[in-house]
Design brief:
The chain is mainly α. The protein has eight helices and no strands. Helix 1 packs across helix 4 (72-132), helix 2 (13-38) crosses helix 3 and helix 2 runs antiparallel to helix 4. 13% of the residues are buried.
Length: 188
């Protein structure tokens, strides 16, 4: 699962970086504006660091409640930036969730493709072997150079199985069968 997580993060790294960058900018900007609105009326926002702490706690939806804006302007800014900021801090979860769904779907599709690839390759190989070993195509010899070095030649095989062919054809050779077929009258 860590490998899956890493591949999803890597695949969606640009979107994640963009969302975090915008969220960070919202954090900095909202903290600064709330600090400007609250610094004189609220003792909880004496420094910009206090305001950054408030922004981090608010925008990450932790919400300790230790620092709250007191002025109406501060509250309106805090509410607006909280809604906007939370959406950008929650956006990476949606990006990762959709990335996981796409990755699982891709793995599922790949698994089914792997199941189909071997039978398809076997079918193509069998069709080529049938095509290339046809006696009517003597020009297709390059395919069998490798097999000629390993397997016995066609003449050797023909000699080995000649007795078998005689018994199957009623004592006639294949060449005799072909001659008989050629000599018989054809009906048009």
């Amino acid at each position: 699962t860590w490998k899956l997580l890493g591949s999803v993060v890597y695949a969606h790294s640009k979107e994640l970086i963009t969302a975090w960058y915008i969220g960070f900018l919202i954090l900095i900007f909202s903290s600064f504006l709330v600090y400007l609105a609250e610094k004189e009326d609220n003792s909880e926002f004496l420094t910009y660091a206090d305001s950054l702490w408030w922004g981090t706690v608010t925008l990450t939806t932790i919400g300790y409640g230790d620092k709250t804006p007191q002025t109406w302007l501060g509250r309106m800014l805090a509410a607006g930036f909280a809604l906007l900021g939370v959406s950008f801090f929650a956006l990476p979860a949606g990006i990762l969730g959709s990335g996981f769904a796409l990755k699982v779907q891709e793995q599922h599709r790949q698994k089914h493709f792997e199941k189909r690839r071997t039978p398809a390759a076997n079918l193509i190989q069998a069709a080529w072997r049938l095509y290339s070993t046809d006696v009517c195509r003597p020009y297709l010899t390059a395919t069998w150079y490798y097999y000629d070095s390993i397997l016995p030649s066609f003449r050797e095989l023909a000699l080995m199985f000649e007795s078998l062919n005689r018994g199957r054809n009623g004592g006639l050779r294949n060449s005799d069968c072909k001659k008989l077929q050629e000599e018989s009258p054809r009906i048009h």
